[in-house]
Amino acid sequence: MSRQGLIELEAVLAIAARGSFRAAALELGLSTTALSNLIAKVERELGVRLFNRTTRSVSLTDAGRTFVGQVGPAVHEIQEAMAVVRAQQDTPSGTLRINAFATGAREILAPLVLAFLRRYPEVHVDLVTEGRIVDIVAEGFDLGLRTADLVPSDMIAVSLGVPRSFAVVATPSYFDAHGRPRVPPDLFAHQCIRIRLPNGAPYRWHFEKDGNPVQIDVDGPITLDEASLSRIAVLEGVGVGFFMEADVREDIAARRLERVLQDWTPPTVPLCLYYPGRKNPSAAFRAFIGLAREFGKTAI
């Protein structure tokens, strides 16, 4: 069949159901002449007549009845599939795939992603976290989440405006026993939880004050590559940890952990959602971007 095959098949089914070219033409929004031409084209391509036509009646041939019986259910399924897809343009539904780094995902999970799911329960969010930066188009993601300085230049970015900073913390009992660092080099005298980057390299703790950056290659009894594990070690009194403030905010508020060197940890680059320019985005995608923009404005 030609590229217009679905229209041609719908025409055959409409005539078979109505028993009239005129009634079928009205149903399809075509002229009787245009409909007759469509059927003639189908019959030429199939090499058989589908309808017996007289001036007073239209009926299916034996070949026509066989054709309609087999094609009818398939066309109905195609129409239903198209209706489902079109509905996604109006009602948020389907799946959104988001690639993010773990810390960023934790920061937006409750205030943005879960809030979105409560508002649009027919949408499923597939949130994948990994340390490496991926090509979200090649990997089949709708959206990426990274800090603003890591967003590819050919992507559209939506700033989330979330205040972010690092936090140096330990338990109050640890600091009571070992003293509180006043400047970053004081950390050399402390047991610190070392951090391993996704590429295997050790992470240097970053500080800045009055425009002067400082990096400290700390030492300590354990090296970990996941913030949740580091948090456990710090809460157990093993030593001093270096986190995104959001990861230990509740612990600080509950006084399970104490923050130091706060004047050396100024706000950092904000988070951004990003995506390629696209035509005809789904309703779910449009709704998520809209909520993200609202979230970004209120978070500033």
UniProtKB/TrEMBL annotation:
Gene3D superfamilies: 3.40.190.290, Winged helix-like DNA-binding domain superfamily/Winged helix DNA-binding domain. PROSITE patterns: HTH_LYSR. The keyword Phosphoprotein does not apply. Keywords: DNA-binding, Transcription, Transcription regulation. It holds the Pfam family HTH_1. One of its GO terms (molecular function) is DNA-binding transcription factor activity. The keyword DNA-binding applies. Coiled coil: none annotated. Residues 9-61 form the HTH lysR-type domain. InterPro entries: LysR-type_TF_proteobact-type, LysR_HTH_N, LysR_subst-bd, WH-like_DNA-bd_sf, WH_DNA-bd_sf. Belongs to the LysR transcriptional regulatory family. This is LysR family transcriptional regulator. It comes from Nitratireductor mangrovi. The lineage of its organism: Bacteria, Pseudomonadati, Pseudomonadota, Alphaproteobacteria, Hyphomicrobiales.
